[in-house]
Sequence to fold (141 residues):
Amino acid sequence: MPLWTIHHSPGLLTAEDKHRVAARITDHYEQIGLPRFYVITLFHETASEDFYVGGEPTPVGVRITIDHIARRNPDQEARRRTARWIKDILAPELARHADLHWEFHVDETSADLWMINGLVPPPGGSDTEKLWAAQNSTSAY
Fold:
């Protein structure tokens, strides 16, 4: 499961912007073989009096945390490619905002502590994971 948690200044992203970003994120993961329902994107508006960078309130900011569980990057080059495609997803939306402070980071979490609907997800690339992707839902296996 990739979980994207996006903290942003109020009014920075419209409902349409959020839908477009979430769809672009999900499309990318689907292209690498993950079921679409693995991808969760959460948007949290954070007022400037609650959003500090360098100890000062930030008038316009975005901070994103991404948890990767379904897949892990095997080496430094793979991690750099992941950071680049994340930037490529975000930059078109965020570049429209002057004086915006934005950043992200990715954590890779153990899949041993992950379940969906009470089921341990199937191994990556397995026939069962492909079935889950095709039906876009879990099923017992």
